[in-house]
Amino acid sequence: VEETLVLVKPDGVARGLTGEILRRIESKGYSLVDLRLVQAERDLLERHYAEHEGKPFYEPLLEFMESGPVVAIRVAGERVIEGVRALMGATDPTTAAPGTIRGDLGRDWGLKVQQNLVHGSDSPETAARELDLWFR
Ligand code: ATP
Ligand code: MG
């Protein structure tokens, strides 16, 4: 069965939204396979976000992601990768659709990086690579 990596980012953990985000994933019918609270190291984040290296938000993104603990979750289910992406909503929390995690719980805080509460792998290849990084 398909698996994906979900991260509750530091803003989600700091705001006490971990339970709410887990609730939405579980209520949708997906299974939690593994879960850990991680203070991410620079090296892990650089590998996780390698595709964004050189972009203007890259450094602020890494600083944000190492600003506090994240909750890493291995989630399983049929078509879970696209299902979790749909639950999360669009990247920009200001315009993410209401009903989604980002649309209901996030907004712009006037920072250089979009603090948008969650991450979800975007393809089977990415999911395999990311799960290996966060759960080795
Ligand atoms: P994620 O990969 O975290 O699930 P995503 O796939 O919706 O989110 P990406 O394009 O992969 O978005 O960007 C990774 C992260 O970088 C975003 O979640 C956001 O935190 C930040 N980000 C992306 N684009 C911008 C931007 N234009 N300005 C500021 N921050 C951004
Ligand atoms: Mg992405």
TrEMBL record:
Cofactors demanded by this protein: Mg(2+)
Domain Nucleoside diphosphate kinase-like: start-end pairs: 1-136
Annotated Gene Ontology cellular component terms: cytoplasm
Active site location: 119 (pros-phosphohistidine intermediate)
Family under the similarity heading: Belongs to the NDK family.
Molecular function terms from GO: ATP binding; metal ion binding; nucleoside diphosphate kinase activity
Lineage, uppermost ranks: Bacteria, Bacillati, Actinomycetota, Actinomycetes, Micrococcales
UniProt-recorded name of the protein: Nucleoside diphosphate kinase
EC number(s) from the headed UniProt entry: 2.7.4.6
NCBIfam families per the UniProt record, alphabetical: PRK00668.1
Reactions listed under catalytic activity: a 2'-deoxyribonucleoside 5'-diphosphate + ATP = a 2'-deoxyribonucleoside 5'-triphosphate + ADP; a ribonucleoside 5'-diphosphate + ATP = a ribonucleoside 5'-triphosphate + ADP
A Gene Ontology BP annotation from the UniProt entry: CTP biosynthetic process
Keyword Ribosomal protein: no
Annotated function: Major role in the synthesis of nucleoside triphosphates other than ATP. The ATP gamma phosphate is transferred to the NDP beta phosphate via a ping-pong mechanism, using a phosphorylated active-site intermediate.
Subunit composition and interactions: Homotetramer.
Keywords (A to Z) from UniProt: ATP-binding, Cytoplasm, Kinase, Magnesium, Metal-binding, Nucleotide metabolism, Nucleotide-binding, Phosphoprotein, Transferase
HAMAP family to which the protein is assigned, alphabetical: NDP_kinase
Main location: cytoplasm
CDD domains: NDPk_I (cd04413)
Gene transcribed to yield this protein: ndk
Localization annotation: Cytoplasm
Binding residues annotated for ATP, in chain numbering: 9, 57, 85, 91, 102, 116
SUPFAM superfamilies given in the database record: Nucleoside diphosphate kinase, NDK
